[in-house]
Amino acid sequence: MTSLLSAPARLAGPVADPRHRRPLVLVAALGGVVAAGALLVVCLGVAVTGWFLTDAASHGAPRDALRTGALGWLMGHGSGIRIQGTAVTAVPLLLTLLAAWSCWRVGHRVGSSVSGHGPDADQIADGERDWTVPVAVACFALGYVAITLVAASLAGTPQTALSTSSAVGWSVFLTIAVGGPAIAVGSGRAAIWTAMLPGNLRATAASCRAVLRSVLLASLVTFVVALSVDIATAINVLSELRLATGELVVFVVLSLLVLPNATLFSASYLLGPGFTVGAQTLVSPTVVVTGALPAFPLLAALPDSGPVPSWTVWLLAVPPLAAALGAALAQRRRPTVRWEEGALRGCAGGVVAGLLLGWLATLAGGAVGPGRMRFVETLASDVLVHAITSLGIGGLVGGLLMTWWQRRTLRPTN
Fold first, then answer.
1. What would the mean pLDDT of 347-366 be, rounded to a whole number?
2. Which of these, 264, 162, 172, 280, lies nearest to 222 by C-alpha position?
3. What is the rounded distance in angstroms from the CA atom of residue 343 to the CA atom of residue 215?
4. Residue 65: which pLDDT band, with cuts at 50, 70 and 90?
5. Rounded distance, CA 142 to CA 308, Å?
6. Could you please report the per-residue DSSP string of 183-201?
7. Res. 400 pLDDT band, cuts 50 70 90
8. Which pTM was predicted?
9. Which terminus of the chain, N or C, has less C-beta within 10 A?
10. What are the sequence ranges of the domains in the chain?
C-alpha cells in the first residue's frame, strides 16, 4: 500500500526534510564544481606559498605561481606536461587520491541533498526505475569537467603541451568511479541495491577491500623501512642540492606527492617482477641493475646494483601473507563455518584485489625526465599475473584458516 501514497507521505525521517529535495541538476552540477575547485584552490595556494618561500617573490609574478599550481592539479589528473622540451607523464598519485577523496566527500553530500527525489524503497523493490543517481552523477561529472577545461585553458601553453583529453578522461573516471558510489551511498540507494545482492558476494567484496588494503600497507611499510635503512644517502642528496629552508620545505612537499607511486613500485618489487628506473634497468628481489640516477631523496630506498643478498627472495612471501591476513580479518567480521564459502570469499577476493593492484601498477610510472628516464615504470603485465596468483592463493589460505578457526569457536544455533 505504501507505493500508492504520494512521495512526501512515503518519505520518513530525514528524507522528508526539504533539504533532501533540493534541485537535483543544480545541486549535482555545483557539487562537481566544488569537488574539483576545492583541491584546485589548495594547489593554487600551495604554489603561491612556495613561490614566496623559494625566492621571496623576487622573480616572476603571482600569475606564474598560479599557473604552476593549476599545472600540478592537472598533472594529478593525468595531463602530463613538458618542461624545457622534455615530456613528464608520470602522475603524482597523492594529488589523484586527494581528488578522489574530494569527490567522495562532496558526492556524499550531493547524494544526501537529492535523496528525496525519485521512487521510494518499496517502488524500487517493485521494479520501478530510479534515475536519481545516474542523473546526479552525470551532472556531477559535467561540473567537474567544466573546471578541468577552465584550468587547462588558463594554465596550458605551447611550451607545457598539456593533454587536455587525458585530464578530461581522468576527471570523468573519478566522478563515475568515486563520485558515483558516494552519491549512491549518500542518497540511500546503495543500501537498497546492496540489500538485494547475495550475502557471499558482499562478503567477497569486503575480502577484496581488506586484501588490497593489507598488501598496500605492507608495501608502504617495506618502502619506509628501505628508505630508513639508507636514510643517510637521502640526507646527503638533500645537502648536495644546497637548498634554502623555504626551498627545502617545498621540495619535501613535492616529494611526498609521489609517495603512493613509490608504494606501488614497492608492491611490484614484492610480487617479483619488479620495476625499471630508466632504460635497460631492473629492480627485483633477484636482479638489481641500475645506472646513474637523478638527485632525488626517495631513490635512496633502491637496493645497490649488483648481486643481491640471498634473503631478499623471501620477500616474495610478503604479498600472500598480507593477503591471507586481510582475507582472515574480513571473514572475522562475516563469519562462516562452511569450507566452500570461506574458500570462495578468500580466493575470489584475492583474485579481484590482484586485478585491481595490477591496474594500479600501470598508473604508477611514466616519463620523469629526458633520455633513459623516460622509462620509469612497473612491469605491469607481469605484475598483474603475479598479483592474481599470489593474492588469490593468499586469500584462499586466509579464508580457509579463518573458517577452521570459526568452526572450532562458533557454536551451532538450534
1. 95
2. 264
3. 19
4. confident
5. 51
6. HHHHHTHHHHHHHTS-HHH
7. very high
8. 0.89
9. C
10. 15-196, 202-409
